[in-house]
Amino acid sequence: MNPGQLLSGYTLPVFACAAAIAALHWLHKKQVMTSVDVNLIYPAEIVEIPIEQVSGIHQGALAITRSDPGDNLDLTRNTPIWALVEQCDREGQAIAIRGGEGIGKLSTTGEAAIYSYAQQLLQENLTQLLQPGEKITVTIILPEGKQLAERTSNAAFGVVEGLSLLGTTGIAQPLSAPGQLEAFREELQTKRHFDCLVFCIGENGLDLATRLGIDTHRLVKTANWLGPLLVEAAVQQVAAILLFGYHGKLMKLAGGIFHTHHHLADGRREILTAYAANVGLPTPVLQTLFTSSTAEAALKYLREVDIQEGSNWVNLVYGAIAHSIDQRAQEYIFKQCTRQLQVGSVLFDRDRQIIVKSEIGSTLLTHLC
């Protein structure tokens, strides 16, 4: 490995699946496994995952792994992941997947925050190991999940009481380590043949874009490096970029902030309040917006005002923000490299519901879907 080369690791769903495989093997053969093979599906490769402990428990088996995200500044590093597998007699599906202690719940439905990739990973890896007619219940447990969740923005995306099993791939790229920007640039360069690319800051954007039917090959995960990657896209002569992101992150571009990590620059409430003032919101509403604890709380308040007064402030304010994001992004690109690049934006809320599409964003999204 070169001195500056970063090591990738694996996402939480991979370790949860590995633990479940080891527990199911113990149920079948009463043998402890020190490692198991997991088919990542995305990408199509099989990897070996260490197993820390396996034991029988009641009528089932419990196996433990530990998260290894590679050279990524990930707060889940070395956290234990448990999988309890129990044989059962029930009608319906062969494998039932449940969230135990430390797995977050969706605030809207109360369901476990175990998303589509994790579900698919568990189903496909475990199904081929089942005995004829066998049915099992798999409970994933993160003993440190609640504690770790307090240090994340999960609540902003409607996940409470723990961490989510989120991701669209089994590989955890080193997105927070030094050198990540160069890795992002290299990925973007492999996609320069597309007329339009979709920039997603994080996994929530990637997941929603995929569910909307956007070709996954067009998706580029940017983390907080929006400014440099917009410039790189222009240098690579990509014709258009759709910025697809959570409103609390993406609105920073409307304030001229092109590296969106909160440790470097925030200004969300100032930006939101300024645009709200510019479209004519009354002073009491502006004061409440400015003192809101989060961007999501401010959005919720604006929606309540619209319901109570029959107004249209959300569309007016966020429409202005989206238009400004497009404009300022294009100005930023031209200033850095004197190239023209069409930029559109789509902003969504914590429930992954689209709040607003800019005019350009709407056109690009229609083309992509």
Secondary structure elements and pairings:
Blueprint: E1 9-10, H1 12-29, E2 35-39, E3 46-50, E4 53-57, E5 60-66, E6 80-87, E7 95-99, E8 105-106, H2 116-127, E9 136-141, H3 145-149, E10 159-160, E11 171-172, H4 180-189, E12 196-200, H5 203-211, E13 219-221, H6 226-235, E14 240-246, H7 247-250, H8 268-278, H9 283-290, H10 295-309, H11 313-337, E15 342-348, E16 354-357, H12 359-368
Parallel strand pairs: 7-9, 12-13, 12-14, 14-15
Antiparallel strand pairs: 1-11, 2-3, 4-5, 5-6, 6-9, 8-10, 15-16
Helix pairs in contact: 1-2, 4-6, 6-11, 8-9, 8-11, 9-10
GO molecular function: methyltransferase activity
Protein name: Cobalt-precorrin-5B C(1)-methyltransferase
Organism: Gloeocapsopsis dulcis AAB1 = 1H9
Structure characteristics:
369 residues, alpha/beta, 2 domains, five-stranded mixed sheet, 16 strands, globular, transferase, EC 2.1.1.195, S-adenosyl-L-methionine, CbiD
The order of strands across the largest sheet is 4-5-6-9-7
Helix content: 25-40%
Q: What is the overall silhouette?
A: globular
Terminal-residue CA separation: 40 Å
Q: Tally the helices: what do you get?
A: 12
- Give me the count of strands: 16
Spans of at least 5 consecutive residues whose pLDDT stays below 50 are: none
What is the string of helix and strand elements? EHEEEEEEEHEHEEHEHEHEHHHHHEEH
Radius of gyration: 22 Å
Mean pLDDT: 91
> How many separate domains?
2
Brief characterization of the structure:
This protein is an alpha/beta fold and 369 residues long. It has twelve helices and 16 strands. It has two domains: 9-160, CbiD-like, CATH 3.30.2110.10; 179-368, no CATH class.
